[in-house]
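Example pasted here:
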Amino acid sequence: MRSTLRIAGLLLLLSALLLPLVGYASDVPCPDDPNIPCVSETPPFYIVINREFEDLTRTGSGCQPIILNHPDIEDCCGESEALGEANFQVESEVCPLLADRVDWPEDGEEPTVIVYQMCCDCTGAAGGEWRYRVRLLHADGTCPIDEQNPGCYEDLPPGTGIDLPAPLIIGGLAVMGVALLATGMVVRRRSVRLA
C-alpha cells in the first residue's frame, strides 16, 4: 500500500513540475512551434517586436530572438502608432546593437546581413498568426526594409522555432519520473520477497 502511495505521490510531483513548463510555451498568442528547428548562430538576426517584456541581451538567433515590449501592436502589417514606435526602436536601438555583433570585413565590401522582424498579428485568428518583415543590416547600424522583399509575410521566417531548453527540461523530468517509478517498483518487489 505504501509503495502505491509513493508512486502516486511521485506522479503528482512530476505533473506539478511539468504544468508550468507546458504553460510557458502556450500561454501567449503565437506560441513557439516545436516542429520548426531553430538556428542558434547569427547572422541572420531575429527580433520579436510585440511581447509584454523586453530583453535586448539575448543573442538574436532564431532560438533566442531579441524581444521588444510593444504588446499594443495587433496589426503587424498596418500603419498604427504602436507599430511605428516599434519600428523606431528597431532602427534606433536594436540595429546599432546588432551591427556591433557582426565581424564586418575591413576591405569595405559589406556582406548582406538579414534581420527578421517578427510580430504576432492578432487581427485574425484567436491565437494570433506570425508575420515578419525582412530588413538589411549595414555596418553603420542602419537596417532599412529590404527593397527586394518589402512585404509583410505570413508565418515564421526560416530558422525560427522553439527555444531548446524547454523541451530538454520537460524530457529530462519525464525520464527522471520514469526512473523513480522503476526504482520504486524494484524496491517494492525486493521488500515483498524479503517479507
Observations:
- Residues 34 and 162 are 5 Å apart (CA to CA).
